[in-house]
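Problem statement: downstream parser choked on a complex file, so we are re-checking the raw output for the 2-acetamido-2-deoxy-beta-D-glucopyranose run. The parser issue turned out to be on our end (a line-ending mismatch), but while we're here, posting the original submission so the record is complete.
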Amino acid sequence: MPFEWLSVLALAAAAVGAQTFQPLRLAGVNIPGFDFGCGTDGTCNITQACPPLTQLGCADGLGQMQHFVKDDGYNVFRLPVGWQYLTYNRMTGALNETQFANYNMLVNACLTTGAYCEIDIHNYARYDGQIIGQGGPNNEIFAELWSNIANYWKNESRVIFGLMNEPHDIPDISIWAGSVQAAVTAIRLTGANSQIILLPGNNYTSAEAFTSSGSADVLNKVKNPDGTITNLVMDVHKYLDYDNSGTHAACVTNNIESSWYPLSTWLRENGRQALNTETGGGDVDSCVGYLAQQIGYQAANSDVILGYIGWAAGSLATDYILSETPYYNGTGWNDTLTVSMALSPMTNMLVCSVV
Ligand SMILES: *[C@@H]1O[C@H](CO)[C@@H](O)[C@H](O)[C@H]1NC(C)=O
Ligand SMILES: *[C@@H]1O[C@H](CO)[C@@H](O)[C@H](O)[C@H]1NC(C)=O
Ligand SMILES: *[C@@H]1O[C@H](CO)[C@@H](O)[C@H](O)[C@H]1NC(C)=O
Ligand SMILES: *[C@@H]1O[C@H](CO)[C@@H](O)[C@H](O)[C@H]1NC(C)=O
Ligand SMILES: *[C@@H]1O[C@H](CO)[C@@H](O)[C@H](O)[C@H]1NC(C)=O
Ligand SMILES: *[C@@H]1O[C@H](CO)[C@@H](O)[C@H](O)[C@H]1NC(C)=O
């Protein structure tokens, strides 16, 4: 362990060089529930959606987010939703008014806390088993979906557009980049020019596979309509369990050598940035230690890594294996072990909201 710490510090020092330390810009928590019932094949049984809003029947997402901002210093929340939820089970880009209004209650709740709020379409690059632009909904449909969402939120600078959660097993990654480009163009053409758009690669947006899978090269060609790459940020996930699945309580790695070092190097060489929109571990000491190391390294590379968003709170039960759902005891909110000991900006003091 002491040896590992030394190499961590050496890598961090090499990355930072003589520059002044800058904290991470963003840190937050996923607030799922509108995505419940969605599978990795892009099907969503929307009767299983469990909106994390007390007025819609599930968790007190507003209370959670207020607590996370006030007591922990978080400044971003990711708000997953199924495509089918928003269109009421139609394979279209046209939003169902009632359904979109329900989801927007969560976006608005998030915005009232003062945080950034990521709209995350949680469909694995698919609709009902079929891949966008490669047998499933065509790029025009995907672009229309995002155009409609962005048209509603175009004046809100604190909304982040997360184009798609965890694409995987994409037959042609170049064609996928074309689908991503179609959505980016559609968003910008609404006038939503100032917001961050997150670009997702293959392999469940694995930070480790980002370059080797070819995702980096093709996503690097996606541009705003004016030819710039301003606020086009790479979307990456990484868990700390042995198979990077986020389904085991124990953590076995800080991911620095396998993922964050090579990713940071690529980002810097290519003038790009990334946001780690899913990470986390069980409420065990191994995760507290490794998460702290991972966040420390991300902060040492804050010129290219914007921050991290833990998975997850919202409507997930407090005994879910990777739960970051705080417990309301009647007078206050108690955080889970990984949040209170590693992820909370108030604890690690590595995020701009608290330093
Ligand atoms: C959708 O979920 C509901 C509630 O769990 C279940 O009763 C129903 O059978 C499911 N529908 C399909 C098509 O799986
Ligand atoms: C929109 O969704 C609601 C359920 O929230 C449903 O009752 C209504 O029929 C849908 N409207 C259309 C036009 O599909
Ligand atoms: C956005 O702002 C523009 C200019 O202030 C205004 O004309 C438009 O109505 C606004 N749109 C929305 C959806 O709020
Ligand atoms: C990425 O996923 C593809 C399947 O789409 C697979 O063939 C490839 O081995 C994966 N790459 C890595 C580095 O995991
Ligand atoms: C409830 O939670 C708050 C915040 O963590 C804590 O200060 C307080 O002691 C707890 N009260 C009880 C009765 O557990
Ligand atoms: C809340 O946290 C406080 C302080 O750590 C602890 O004393 C209390 O038992 C916790 N309550 C619950 C219900 O988790």
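For whoever reads this later: Residues 26-348 form a domain with the TIM Barrel fold (CATH 3.20.20.80).
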